[in-house]
Amino acid sequence: MTRMTESLLGLLGGMLAFVGIGIRAMILYFHQETWSDLLWVFLHFIVFFFLLGVTFFATPHKLEEDPQYSGKWMLAGGILALPFSWFTAIAGTLLIAGGWQSLRKKEKPAKGKSV
Description:
With about 120 residues, the chain is an all-alpha fold. Helices cover about 80% and strands about 0% of the residues. Helix 4 (about 65-80) runs antiparallel to helix 5. The radius of gyration is 16 Å and the shape is elongated.
């Protein structure tokens, strides 16, 4: 059974989220005025690399291996991406939809195989 819908939602959401976070981090970096601004840039890059991992777990291969684990990663990444900007909020909504669908969908055994 393929999980193409969940994978498409997860990959699109993940890519949009880490591009949005990356752009926002670069804007913050170039407009920093104090050292506390640099801490915000560091936080954005931590989230950037986490969302890179979320995108990795949204691939069709990983979703076929363990849809529950990948779905939890997508939900966590979607929730994390929501508060940063309107662009990452859209991406986070896509990630949440893909993760929720991955967690809801039950496994059906393939024809001719016993459970």
